[in-house]
Amino acid sequence: MIPVRSFEGKDVAVFGLGRSGIATCKALMAGGARVCAWDDNENARKAAEEAGVPMVDLNRRDWQTFAALVLSPGIPFRFPEPHRFVRMAQLVGTPVIGDMELFARAVNEFRSVDRPRIVGITGTNGKSTTTALVGHILKVNGKDVRVGGNIGVGVLDLEKLHSEAIYVLELSSYQLDLAESLRCDVAVMLNISPDHLSRHGGMDGYVSAKRRIFRNQGTGDFAIVGVDDVRSGVMATQLTGEAMRQVIPISAEYGLGRGVAVLEGMLQDSIAGRAEQPVDISGAKALPGRHNHQNVAAAYAACRALGLEPADIVSAIETFPGLPHRLETIGYLEGVRFINDSKATNAQAAEQAIRAFPNAWWIVGGRPKEEGIDDLAPLFGQIRKAYLIGESTEAFARVLTDKLDHAKCRTLDVAVAQAFEDAKASGVKDPVILFSPACASFDQFRDFEQRGLAFRQEAVNLVKRRPASQPV
Q: What is the pTM of this model?
């Protein structure tokens, strides 16, 4: 745990008591703050109380006594409209911050020579894989690395700060919106495409939130920016023009005169402005597809910025085991391969999965995002058949009519069973069932992880239902 001492002896309101909220309360209490914690959900309050967090009904408190409101990232801050507690804090001039700002304040208490290094990673897609990959590379190379933030362990639950540590943090747009003083020694922007638009008041607000990862950087810091989409490419140009930090462009589509590119499995390092000998990274079996090649380029650039040698980075990349629910091969049955890409919660993520596994039997659907799947139309010819599940079933069926063979399965168990029978009967060599939903999970599942585990279980159930005489 990282104690936060910047509110010692002061009253601090904490609203939202999930994993990160409870960690926030404990970090503040360890730093001497008087915590007043609340959650509208009774079960969340009970769990927090059992963890030793004091409950105070914030609806009944005088907000003028609070030094800050620490808000869970999942609670509306500005859009579609501020939560009532945000409005109450703003009425009395109480700052509204998040756990990442508390982390930043704890770091900022150190002298510059004693300060741990921070790698921040954001983007619409790929940030979890890139965060885990950077952490893996650093660990393999003997660094004291701690990985967390929006992935795995909440930032304040990480081991306490010291000068030799490197904190590798996945940063969501929600977290960045609530962080004012965070300075990343290495800030990574992978890509930008429409997502969470209602939470940011539209695309401009979303881009602005993402760009905050570069706030507070100085001349010795690094900005690593994907240039394969227009918005990120513009951002890279703007950051270069500011001349306030060192900018390293990355790409999985274009050769770069300066930066890092991965094209057709070959990594090209041109960070110094001259092309080094290309390196074959095709041995990284857990990182298939163009989008993962962008993740590799970003991780390589980040680790080069931290001073690692190229050969050591590439060697570690090849041993990366991958992450669950991200183009994860969960097994084979009668030659049919099952790919779990439950983390693909928007069309852009699903696009990368379809490109990585063309001619698959595609299970898609859930609670649709605003952009739907219309933008995937150019790829429909690369899909054998679609199996529609969740709230989006009817809407997606209308999109696919006369364009792609599909079945309205509605539930995951029906979709897995039908896709398996169709793939098995197709006679195609090495058929793939691709579960890449392009939707949020909240219509039928708690989160993408529960949804991915459910897909895995349905594959297991297929094995269980087989007659004992039939081989797997």
A: 0.88
